[in-house]
Amino acid sequence: MSTTVTQPGSVPPGDPESEGALSRYLLLQKAGGLVAPLVTALLAFLVGGLVVFATTKSVPDTLTTYKAIFEGAGLNWFLPWETCSDPCQSAIRLEQTLLVWVPLVLTGIAVAFAFRCGLFNIGGQGQYIAGAIASIIVAAELPLYVDLPAVPLILLTMIVSMAAGAGLAGIAGLLKATVGAHEVITTIMLNWIVIWVGTYLFGFEGPLQNDQSAEIPKSNDVDPAGKLTQAGVWGHPELQGLPWISLGVAFLGLVVYALVLNRTTLGYEVRAVGHNPEAARYGGISVARNYVLAMAIAGAFAGAAGALDVLGWKFRLDTTDFAGTIGFIGIAVALLGRNTSIGIGLAALLFAALQTGTSTRNLDPEIFPPELATPLTIIIQGLIVLLVGADIVILVLLQRLRRGRRQRSPA
Amino acid sequence: MATEAPILELRGITKQFPGVLANDHIDFDLRRGEVHALLGENGAGKSTLMNILYGLYHPDLGEIRIHGVPVRMSSPREAIASGIGMVHQHFMLIPVMTVAENVVLAVEPRRDGILLDYREAGRRVQDLATSFGFAIDPDARIQDITVGQQQRVEILKALYRRADILILDEPTAVLTPQEAVELFGILQTLKSEGKSIIFISHKLNEVLEIADRITVLRRGKRIETLPAAGATEESLAKLMVGREVLLRVEKGDSQPTESFLRVEDLHVRDERGIEKVRGVSFDVRGGEIVAIAGVDGNGQTELIDAITGLRRPESGQVVVEGKDVTTRNARHHFEIGVGHIPEDRQRRGLVLDFSIAENIGLHDFRKSPASRLGWLSPRRLIERARRLIKEFDVRGGGPRTPGAALSGGNQQKVILAREIDRDPRVLIAAQPTRGLDVGAIEFVHRRLVEERDEGRAVLLVSLELEEVLSLADRILVMYEGAIVGEFPPSATEEELGVAMTGGGRREAVA
Fold first, then answer.
1. Which of A176, A393, B54, B332 has the fewest C-beta atoms lying within 10 Å of its C-beta?
2. B197: domain CATH number?
């Protein structure tokens, strides 16, 4: 038996000197984090394509349908070679897409922020409605008694709405922190409470039903001073119009989300609790306090979404508004966006485009039967959520592919 | 080569992981009827090599030969077909199924083509166990048997699949000393039946006890293959670590100052309301190491939790430098100068998804320079981490590397760095070397003695008598929630052992 004593290599593996290789590895992981959601979305469209194919019975028609959805969402406005006549069709559609994008971004953040603290906030919808109800109370009811100029009225509305969302979500956080009630259960129950409070307030004979027509279950209109459209809109003001303020707040939300999480002590605590509550406690961080705080902050984002929709383009609430799904799609946005700022922005755009692009108004009825368009949207949305859960599988498949290729090509 | 051709040969096995050359041209061979130990520190490449042999990884370079014939292991199925069986450190058993069902899983005896023949399965497993001298009940459920018995089920599983080569990955890590003795008996029987065994370990004494030959790996390379006869713990440690290792700690006499930590008549209950600490009193002075020895589960965990503010005691007092801190929280304890190296570094000591820099800031992120007015300064966290990584010789990554990517020893160094760098008056170290390899243990021990010499009060809780005896200036033995005796470091293991099992107390009562 020969014995050889090998000298250690020049750079021992894993020494600080080899940080280059390690950072490359981390980058690869991050790339995986970008590739997986992309593949997820693509796969969802591919499977969704089967549904379209079953309807249209031809491959070219399937492709045309997707093109029509793309154009229905107004996304062709970004393409440099597209020209448009006046009024610009694609701009009007894009405006509608972005109108949906704003609340999706904010409710997406509401889910993601809680996620980072290890909490699953299913209550985005309730917090959104709480914000919307609060903004009606401040911007439509309060001006009946007090005269407020635009800026203070809008600011007050935003603050009260965010507080409403925060308070509602905070209840779930408090219950989790004190008695350990699971936040999934409590947020779902709180959703229903808010929905029925809203239905009571603005429904027939409700205390806040509008003063004009007793036969319509809706609220009073927002005071003209409170309308964000006053401050200028992007796109076509005669159509819905997208207030610059809403767009700005959504972008600001994304920036604030990233900064708070990564650059503040608050975010550090939230992430520590999210990753390992036991280690956080050992480190001197109050887990209970962070559960309450993280939920409240999450709720504030969703509340802001409700306020922006009311002040931006809804201007009133009626009882059918409570049946919406914005808050729930927010969950899918956070999942697909992997709880990152950029991810949430892009995922919200995808879901918003899907929603607008398949709306009966925007999807060309010659290409795809409009009555089947909404089911198609929901199928694709469902597929994305399903596949997001399977993104580990997708990553493994990608890795297999890569390895297989390497083995086939002689090194 | 020796008397006969090896039944297994690994030639030039090389495996590159991102950033790490895990195996660098490793040669290894195994003869019929021998125990060949694979010795190395954590991260030396032992598990990688065995996972390659078992078909879980594919080598970038190199060749595997069985009975002289080159084979390609692309999955465990092929490894099993080649007569290789692996017993993993974490067992792959189904708790609700019986021993026999687990053993025959996936190769079940059938009746009428489709029906599982339970009786036949039980009979075959019983026969197999008897033939190798195992005491085991084939009808017992896995969840009802001890860890040692579960390990035997894993070995039976491999034997049932006609394995001639058994790979045991750190098999004694989960066993009590008594179970380890039984395992070694089983291995002797297997050897005499002509089975060959690869025994992976980083424990020197057991390798010397069971192995015929030893191959030492270090940082992905094979350093040497030598017969166990003639080797010593010191010589193996040197090969493993690459330098002389002090297996005994060198330290001068302690110069205790005044009391920094005083515990008085402390009573603590656990989550289930059971009183685990029953009236413990002691004090630790600056410049001395006081060790609490005892068998696991005698209230040490609850005692430490209460002293560090993680658990509210029922009654009694904890006094740090004259200040009563009994009812204060963990954060307050850190702020007045208590450092705490927790028992479970992965569950409590580190946020594994956080980077080293973030982990090092776990107690100080609220304060300047780590943050100002609530704004973190990642740059300052990283600067500090870079300094400490150097000072504490943390290997395996830089400030941005996630804690999860480090080996156990390096994770412990990060915790040590964090706690010591805060300049605490009292340093509490709960099982600071659990699961570490010799190099890392030496580092932790040396550092604890240095901190004592700096004048800190060090409270050590350990289950390892050898560690207690070599580090402590005073030894307290804890049994069923009470301190049953105080010993000088000149005490023998036997004396401590008797006290740890309640012998001392019975004498005292009598």
1. A393
2. 3.40.50.300
- Count CB neighbours of B81 within 10 A: 14
> B-chain residues within 8 Å CB-CB of A260?
none
Rounded to the nearest 5°, which phi and psi values hold at B282? -170, 170
Higher model confidence: residue A88 or residue B62?
B62
> What's the pLDDT score for residue A407?
53
Q: Spell out, as residue ranges, where chain B has pLDDT lower than 70.
A: 1-4, 19, 176-177, 504-510
- In this structure, the answer to whether residues B261 and B394 fall within a common structural domain is no
Q: Which amino acid is at B15?
A: K
User: pLDDT per residue over B463-505, tens digit each?
Assistant: 888 889 989 999 999 999 999 999 999 998 888 888 887 775 4
Same domain for B204 and B255? Answer: no
Residue B177's CB: how many other CB atoms inside 10 A?
Answer: 7
Residue length of chain B: 510
Indicate whether B3 belongs to any domain. Answer: no
Q: Which of A204, A228, A208, A229 is nearest to A220 (CA)?
A: A208
Across the interface, do A268 and B342 touch by the CB < 8 Å criterion? no
Based on the fold, state whether residues B114 and B195 are members of the same structural domain.
yes
Judge whether residue A28 has pLDDT over 60: no
Strands B474-479 and B426-430: unpaired
Establish if B365 touches chain A: CB-CB under 8 angstroms: yes
Nearest to B34 by CA among B8, B54, B55, B67: B8
ipTM score: 0.80
Cβ-proximal residues to A54 (8 Å cutoff; 6+ apart), any chain: none
Type and span of the H or E element at B180: helix B177-192
Q: How many whole angstroms separate alpha carbon A327 and alpha carbon A330?
A: 5
Return the residue in B362, B387, B418 with the most chain A beta carbons within 10 A, the one to mutate for interface testing: B362
pLDDT digit string (tens) for A385-404?
Answer: 887 767 666 666 766 676 66
To the nearest whole angstrom, how far is the Cα of A330 from the nearest Cα of chain B?
A: 25
Q: How buried is A403 (Cβ within 10 angstroms: 0-12 exposed, 13-18 middle, 19+ buried)?
A: exposed
- The reported pLDDT for the residue numbered A395 is 65
How many CB atoms are located within 10 Å of the residue B495 CB? 16
* Number of compact structural domains in chain B: 3
Whether B2 maps to a domain, the answer reads: no
In chain A, how long is the greatest CA-to-CA distance? 100
Statement to judge: residues B374 and B286 lie in one domain: no
**Domain range enclosing B359:** 351-423
The verdict on B359 and B430 lying in the same domain is no
Query: What's the whole-model pTM score?
Result: 0.77
Q: Which of B405, B423, B441 is the last residue of a domain?
A: B423
pLDDT > 50? residue A335: yes
Q: What is the DSSP letter of B64?
A: E
Is residue B1 domain-resident?
A: no
Q: Are residues B409 and B430 in the same domain?
A: no
More confident: B135 or A276: A276
Q: Which amino acid is at B314?
A: E
Please determine, for residue A31, whether its predicted confidence score (pLDDT) is greater than 60. no
Between A233 and B215, whose confidence is greater? B215
Q: Which of B209, B241, B273 is the last residue of a domain?
A: B241
Does residue B406 belong to any structural domain of this protein? Answer: yes
In angstroms, the CA B426 to CA B414 distance is 18
Q: Does A278 touch chain B (CB under 8 A)?
A: yes
pLDDT at B208: 92
- Is B229 an 8 Å CB contact of chain A? no
CATH numbers and ranges of domains, chain A = 90-357 (1.10.3470)
CB nearest to A19's CB, from B2, B366, B398: B398
Mark whether B171 and B99 lie in a shared domain: yes
Query: Do B356 and B269 share a domain, yes or no?
Result: no
Whether residues B224 and A4 touch (CB distance < 8 A) is answered with yes
Helix, strand, coil tally for chain A in percent (to 5): 75, 0, 25
Would you say the C-alpha torsion A349, A355, A359, A365 has a positive or negative sign? positive
